[in-house]
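FW: tagging you since you asked about this chain on Friday. Here's the raw sequence from the shared folder, copied in full. Didn't touch anything.
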Amino acid sequence: MPGFGDVSVSIGDDHVAVVEIHRPPDNHFDVALIGDLASALEMLESTTDCRAVVLASEGKHFCAGASFGEHGAGDGGNGRHLYDEALRVFANGLPMVACVQGAAIGGGLGLALAADFRVGAPEARLSANFAKLGFHHGFGTTVTLPAVVGQQRAAELLLTGKRIDGEEGLRIGLLDRLAPLGDVRAEAHRFATEIAACGPLATKSIRRTMRAGLVERIRSATDHEKAEQALLATTRDFAEGVRAMAERRPPVFEGR
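HL: got it, structure written out here
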């Protein structure tokens, strides 16, 4: 299969494709990577060989969120915003199981939530840590997080930025299956194989019904998230949040 930048694709005889991000160890994303991921998924959707996808990442962590370098967290410098590319991921028609080892933090958790299901390890670290950065949440988590854990739990996770492990993630529904760290990818593949073994026309039809209107809700949510992020990106609190994260210390926010 062709490669797509830092994203590789392989398909087995079981009709399951593995789409893997290669930016270890943290697998931070930017506009280009999410665009490459979307292109890989669109290519798979156009074939008859693929019936389900495992979304995986190389290295210690699934995804520690967005890169905050130049253009990293928003505009790619080519007129494409990160969330333009994210919408293409949500619009893909293939069932997807995310393999969550290590950390899925901030936008990385948002990426995991773009999948239909998530398989993780007890050692997984899951956090919608945006508020701890002095930032508004994004990647459509306005829609996806309440859908899997409920409105009240989603508000708690977003407003506290708390970090939970894989066992807690399974308990609240953020993960769908739990496996030992060394078996997470194999379990995610088994999950995807269960889906791929069913009638492909039926699974696509059921998935369209279950996700009806999702892309439109994500588009509306990311438009709002984008505007709020643009406002907060200019604040001293956001600069402090990013600096504190880089320095591995608690932030000192001023409310300005």
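FW: The longest strand covers residues 16-21.
HL: agreed, and The chain has a mean pLDDT of 95.
FW: great, closing this out.
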